[in-house]
Amino acid sequence: MQHRYQILKPDWIVTVNADFEVLQDYAVVIEDNRIQSLASIDEIQQLPCFAEAEIIDLPGRVLMPGLVNSHTHASMSLLRGIADDLPLMEWLGEHIWPAEAKWVDAAFCVDGFQLAAAEMIRSGTTCMNDMYFFADEVARSAEQMGMRVVVGLIVLDFPSVWAANADEYLHKALAVHDEVRGMRLVDSAFAPHAPYTVADGPLRQIAMYSNELDVPVHIHLHETASEVADAERNNGQRPIDRLDQLSLLNSNLIAVHMTELNEFEIERIAEVGVNVVHCPESNLKLASGICPLTTLLDKGINVCLGTDGAASNNDLDMFGEMRTAALLAKGFSGNASACDARQTIEMATINGARALGMADRIGSIEVGKCADLIAIDLGDLNTQPVYDPVSQVVYAAASRQVSDVWIDGVAQLRDSEFCQLDVSRIIATAASWANKIRG
Amino acid sequence: MQHRYQILKPDWIVTVNADFEVLQDYAVVIEDNRIQSLASIDEIQQLPCFAEAEIIDLPGRVLMPGLVNSHTHASMSLLRGIADDLPLMEWLGEHIWPAEAKWVDAAFCVDGFQLAAAEMIRSGTTCMNDMYFFADEVARSAEQMGMRVVVGLIVLDFPSVWAANADEYLHKALAVHDEVRGMRLVDSAFAPHAPYTVADGPLRQIAMYSNELDVPVHIHLHETASEVADAERNNGQRPIDRLDQLSLLNSNLIAVHMTELNEFEIERIAEVGVNVVHCPESNLKLASGICPLTTLLDKGINVCLGTDGAASNNDLDMFGEMRTAALLAKGFSGNASACDARQTIEMATINGARALGMADRIGSIEVGKCADLIAIDLGDLNTQPVYDPVSQVVYAAASRQVSDVWIDGVAQLRDSEFCQLDVSRIIATAASWANKIRG
Q: What CA–CA distance (Å, rounded) separates B86 from B83?
């Protein structure tokens, strides 16, 4: 039974508010699922709720907003490591798509989602922007587990186990959108897979619905140079230009990957407020190209971070993704000051919340927001000594040092132990899938 | 009290032998400090030593050779995170060198070394190639801790707390070389800091001693484009050409960084057998440039991996370094098959052993070699399910999943607990240094 009030007393609070304040000798008061106060230790003791609150000491720990993984295919965790060291189209065409065709059903999606969600909670992610099949079942599972998720309302031109054609995908998309509206932890986004797998007709409909319902559109875009070259050859048009004509290029768009961008495109997406999800580890591993992160940040574009699916990463660790993003930006731009620790944390938190249209609810530690919070224990060898907790989080901490996680006020991890999930069962289920798939 | 025989029974053995055999249902027998047998579970039970051996079950774990960190400045862990997001020369000139001038003494070196060694053991590194001051004290500390180290016999033109001039550095180098020859776990290498900090005279002497004594020479080389451009402007010669003239370009050379290489230089280092240490995270973080790893591997050059010091990384985690090396190679070369999981593990183990002239003793699981071994528990969420243990080690495992570590047959970590080191004391000592340094 959870107390109505929880008071968290860490050594440092990295607020990720507009001033990026880092506070010492402060505490956070959670009331039910919300952040009720952020105040000095002295002030906290004067609050009326102090006597009835659960006081949670977090010595040696940094408290920060939970991480937002802005692009993933959670259920694909069941295919982690099934094929590596291959280029994108060979990896997809010869390994991933055949395995999916053979094995993906509702049970696969739910079991894979649970493995991924547990891995994410363990590593400090409290919200994911997902794109995969059976969004209805995944939504119910997320709600029941206590994981915050934006389910992708997937749309393709070709049949899958989920739908037979674009009309049916769209029909199901609207049905799932409707179903999740009443859920506590689930939002939805239209998720046309990519420009090369969805025709103009359904994309136009998605643009219309997105605009009417004010729902984000989550799409793979300009992932590789060959995607863009193929489109130019086949349609005489680059994919971004096509989406622009189809009224999709706006602040509801969550454009994933974006490794191949010309100057005009960068100006245009800055102008209309497109959100970009940078997935550095997936892009590197599949040799897809490198997103020009520092240029996008300099233009004021909202860039967030995603792990992509575990089949192409191969973990769902946003600490790894933060580090890779920061290091790659410096190395790729030749500027060691590029993408500093603060910007990196913003990409992994508030920028993701913004892309998902949820910045009023999550992404920072501010009064009134949902209590999606994580604590990181800097007491380990690899994060000692501590001169700057922000530097430690980005450049030294391992995700395993996440000691405590709250999602919507509910403790999911306390002192490195899961409070709600039966992890042994989740792992055993994943292993039994692998036994079947391995054959 | 340790048994004379230890029999390790993991789920998988990644031998890193010439065929890169991955064995299941096999066990490793350690006799004192050596690998005495590698045989099937059935055969092991027939061995005469079976009855008196300690049987160590390692369920769900991969056993592999301990990782070799081929370039580090261990004691600098006390400066971890003191300055970030800065280019190399500003970072060195305005932050690191002043802090070193003020604080480095024998106690700093030993305490920093112990923090680094403990972090390395915790993350699966069993041997480091170090370069810093007070190599004598560090050697004694390593021997006492049970950490395998190659201490760098540092040489500079300018005075430091360790020596007043090149003559004194060389004199001390030979004295330390002599002292460590009798030690169980310590080797030494000449460590002229870099071409731009050591004049021709001392480099010529090092070349002579290295050749006479067959001792490696560990040097920062072609770390940045500006290092090479400055040398060309000041000396009319690229540093590699200069080292070649000084008889240092040979298979005893351990050349660290090597981001700036022309075709001729690559041919030349391949021809003479120079060893290259790739430090991808340090190079990215300081925007130093990117080592052309895949080209070097294609030419058959022995490339190994190093973390560099914790002040520029900011951890000493060879799992992170493996992942970054593999991903960066793919992304940078545009070939997703480049630097596959197997090559990556070789760089982190046997290639490092080769560079250090220790491939007859460490770097693989083969009968007769020293028992420098690590076990990695793949039972965690982020490494489930398991299709391929080699893929999991490189692309999914976190260093925190290292559950067991033996160095020279001595268990240093068992079931994630340190067996020999007083880690609380090490951390407290590091924190007290930070308090002083922070002022």
A: 7
A223, A267, A226, A221: which is closest to A246 by C-alpha?
Answer: A221
Q: What percentage of chain B exceeds 70 in pLDDT? A: 100
Same domain, B386 and B321: no
Whether A428 contacts chain B with CB within 8 A? no
Interface membership of B123 toward A (CB under 8 Å): yes
The CATH code of the domain that includes A19 is: 2.30.40.10
Q: What does the pLDDT look like over A236-272, one tens digit per residue?
A: 999 999 999 999 999 999 999 999 999 999 999 999 9
Type of residue found at A35: I
Cα dihedral sign for B294, A344, B125, B248?
Answer: positive
| Count, residues in chain A | 439
Residues of chain A above pLDDT 90, percent: 97
Q: Which residue of chain A comes nearest to B438, CA vs CA?
A: A387
Tokens of A305: 């971070």
- A284: domain CATH number is 3.20.20.140
- Report the C-alpha gap between B204 and B246 in whole angstroms: 6
Give tens-digit pLDDT for B198-256.
999 999 999 999 999 999 999 999 999 999 999 999 999 999 999 999 999 999 999 99
B76 and B29: one domain? no
The pLDDT value given to residue B438: 87
Confidence of residue B273 (pLDDT cuts 50, 70, 90): very high
- Judge contact between B382 and B319, C-beta under 8 A: no
Instruction: Please identify among residues 349-388 of chain B the ones whose CB lies closer than 8 Å to any CB of chain A.
Output: 379-388
Q: A151 near A356, Cβ under 8 Å? A: no
The reply to whether B434 touches chain A by the CB within 8 Å rule is yes
Preferred mutation among A343, A381, A400 to probe B, highest tally of B CBs within 10 A:
A381
CB B239 within 8 A of CB B275: no
**What per-residue confidence (pLDDT) applies to B85?**
94
- The three-class DSSP label of residue A111 is helix
Pair (A58, A72) in one structural domain: no
The distance of A37 to chain B (nearest Cα, Å) reads 31
Q: Which residue among A283, A314, A392 places its CB closest to the CB of B395?
A: A314
Q: Is residue B1's pLDDT more than 70? A: no
Query: What distance in Å separates the CA atoms of residue B132 and residue B150, rounded to the nearest whole number?
Result: 11
CA A337 from chain centre, in angstroms, equals 25
Q: Is residue A203 a contact partner of residue A209, using CB atoms and an 8 Å limit?
A: no
Is the peptide bond between A385 and the residue preceding it cis, with omega within 30 degrees of 0? yes
Q: What is the pTM of this model?
A: 0.97
Three-state SS at A404: strand
Low-confidence stretches of chain A (pLDDT < 50) are: none
Q: Are both B276 and B300 inside the same structural domain?
A: yes
Enclosing H/E stretch for B201: helix B200-213
Q: Are B398 and A396 within 8 A, CB to CB?
A: no
Say whether both A218 and A343 belong to one domain: yes
Are A290 and B331 an interchain contact pair (Cβ–Cβ within 8 Å)?
Answer: yes
Task: Identify the domain containing residue B274 by its residue range.
Answer: 67-355
For the stretch A116-151, pLDDT in tens is 999 999 999 999 999 999 999 999 999 999 999 999
Taking CB atoms and an 8 Å cutoff, what residues of chain B touch A260?
none
- Residue A1: the pLDDT is 61
Q: Give the residue carrying structure tokens 């990026």.
A: A20
Structural domain contains residue B37: yes
- Note whether residue A433 is domain-resident: no
HSE-up (13 A, CA, CB side) for residue B261 = 23
Alpha-carbon separation of residue B32 from A250, B10, B67, B198, B414 (angstroms): 67, 19, 20, 42, 17
